[in-house]
Amino acid sequence: MNKKAVSLLSGGLDSTLATCILKEQGIEIEAINFQTMFGCCKDDAREVATRLGVGFTLLKVGDDYLDMIKNPKYGYGRAINPCVDCRSYMFTMAKKWMDQMGASFMISGEVLNQRPMSQKMRDFELIEAECGLEGRILRPLSAKRLPETEPEKAGIVDRSKLFGIEGRSRAELLKLAAKYGIENPPSASSGCALTEKPFAEKVRDVFENRPDYKRWEFEVLKTGRHFRLSSEAKVILGRNENENQYLISLHPEGTWLLEPEQFIGPYALVVGTASDEDLGMAGAIMLRYSQNPRPQSGVVRAVQNENAKTIRVPHGASEELINSLRIA
Asked: How far is Cα 61 from Cα 152, in angstroms, rounded to an integer?
């Protein structure tokens, strides 16, 4: 073994501390973060790596990540979060990078029993076995409560300088933050949109209604208001000018882009096979979210590939209809 390691750095307090602890022992560290369909690397992860003076690499997950979320081997948490499967996926990606850079082991900020879905002892053991990383994932915050890892056995890492933190209390973590000069440590957070029930409903909606889904259909889930018009079509409304511009620039082939005319309101992207009735309903929702003074009727221009049509909207959608169509 050598003194080179890959650190899974989220930018949160735990992974930052884990990286600090091993850097203090003279370990050469390359930090990595992951870009998924549901959000990119946190800017603070890159900033933390720069501040600590370690390398940084952003790894982009493949489309098979969606297959894992749709059919997790070890099930979901409270929302649509397959935490054990997801951690296995990430560690498997990280292992390829570790082997490529010639590192010997991995650093993780996980704390034993901090999270019920993926940080129990049996979860750690299961994930390591799934990834072929038995004894090579070092969790310095909880190391003294865990079996000795290979770098500890080899004398590369001094176990006496590691910690035995367990559970959800942040008291010891905040003491360590002060020790390492980490000012204004970030609040505890899952950092994962899949643990949020409203967002999980949007993900499920795509899985259930779009069997031939594309990657961008998940990348757009954090943008706008989402409404299911029918089993074949849904509409996404921009909530502000930035989101309107994003929908305009995205506008994938086969989708309808709806632009308000004669009133000021949101742009909309209609995904799926939309009937004239669906487009009319989308226009009514756009009118409902138009700016005050809200007009009683309006006109919407709809464009799909080389086709364009004008849709007259006699009135805005009612609150009852809005609520019945809202996905989340």
From this structure: 31
Q: Residue 231 — φ and ψ, nearest 5°? A: -65, -20
DSSP 105: E
SS3 category, 289: coil
d(CA 27, CA 157): 8
Mean pLDDT of the chain: 95
Going along the chain from its start, the domains and CATH numbers come out as 4-191 (3.40.50.620), 223-325 (no CATH)
Structure-token pair, residue 322: 């809005």
Closest listed residue to residue 68, CA positions, set 37, 45, 95 = 37
**Six token digits for residue 109:** 């900020």
Question: Which long-range contacts does 308-316 make (Cβ < 8 Å, 24+ apart)?
Answer: 309/279, 310/261, 311/258, 311/276, 311/279, 311/280, 311/283, 313/280, 313/283, 313/284, 313/286, 313/287, 315/284, 315/287, 316/284, 316/285, 316/287, 316/288, 316/290
Q: Which two tokens stand for residue 89?
A: 């996926």
What is this structure's pTM? 0.91
Q: What is the 3-state secondary structure (H, E, C) of 67-86?
A: HHHHCCCCCCCCCCCCHHHH
- For 124-195, list the strands marked E by DSSP: 137-138
Phi, psi (deg, nearest 5) at residue 13: -65, -45
Distance CA 208, CA 259 (A): 28
Write out pLDDT tens, residues 164-213: 999 999 999 999 999 999 988 887 766 688 999 999 999 999 999 999 99
Q: Is 277 helix (H, G, I), strand (E, B) or coil?
A: helix
